[in-house]
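Troubleshooting entry. The earlier prediction with 4'-deoxy-4'-aminopyridoxal-5'-phosphate gave an output that would not parse, so I re-checked the input for stray whitespace and re-submitted. Clean input:
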Amino acid sequence: MSHLYFDYAASTPLDPRVKESMDEVALIAGNPSSLHASGRMLREKIDRARRSLAGLLDVDETEIIFTSGATESNVAALDGIVRAVRASHPARRLRIVASAIEHSSVSATLARLQEYGAAVDIVPVAADGRVRPDDVARAITADTVIVCIMWANNVLGAIQPIAEISGAVAEAKMKRGPKDPPLFFVCDAVQAMSTQSVLPRRLGIDALSLSAHKMYGPKGVGALYLKRGTPFAPLITGGGQEAGRRSGTENVAGITGLGRAAEILIVDRAAENERTARLRRALVDGLRAIRGVEVFGKDADSLPGTAFLSGRENGDVLALKLDVKGIAASAGSACDAGNRKKSSALAALPDHRFADRGGVRLSFGRFTRHEEISAVITALREA
Ligand code: PMP
């Protein structure tokens, strides 16, 4: 039986063009910090990847920090900004505003920062899985140092109103007095990268996380965009790589893969986005025609490659039935599944229907063919 992969939100398949770029680099001996020709060759690979990623994001190369993935990027951004601002404002109890549906790499870090004295203000989501910008504006106080809202949710596929949230943050920044701590907008853009135009500078984002394995690159490498001038205490200290912001010998093959993945997106993303949106429309139409199946969210507010559905059965059972039929999909999100607890994104919805039953996330993209969409609809009809 052929296997159909519908779990792009957990990890996108590696693009063969990306793999090719990595294979070549993986065989070069040396350390990119070495001054000899071999080292210089590796350094040039990192430089090129940095240029490519900076090009995709339309930011300065110096604002890119390569990391081990978006978990590290999120932790480094939150922890790094809070520690740096705490050093300059020791008398203030710093606060962080975050949405109720952030990835665990954000929510678990916020819990840890609370133990170290920071306060966290959670902004709810409405029934559409989206944060209301007014709620963000109301949650910000003179002690808020970070507003952390993801671009798009990994379970529901709901795209957040980033421009409006950014506007609320910008307004709050203007109200700051000379003695107040500064305010920064941190955004986890992991799920948005493969289809959305992610331009942090234009959107007033100060720190942005991304992961290569959600954009057809390899697992275990990612990046943090950190706007020039943002106070930052490095999480990983040592040899001073990445301009002192992230030490450790660079994952040159992985970084090369991330750079190549960015180059491909620069050329292909707009057209791919349209094709993926067409696939989603066909999928959602087919699913909604099945009795007892409900698809979450409006098309316009959803990532083109993600559809969360709830059926007559529990999400875990449905995912298992699909697995038996050779279809890989996740119940809730993979990260939550590992913990065997209800998805926090589902639990955050005001209407508990989706949380009670759970559901299945079908996510797809670059390598998904129309026939596969038909096959998954048939499988769910029979399930
Ligand atoms: N944020 C979001 C929204 C994600 O979906 C993921 C991946 N599941 C991460 C962060 C963590 O990324 P990584 O796997 O690169 O650590």
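This one parsed fine. The first helix runs from residue 16 to 26.
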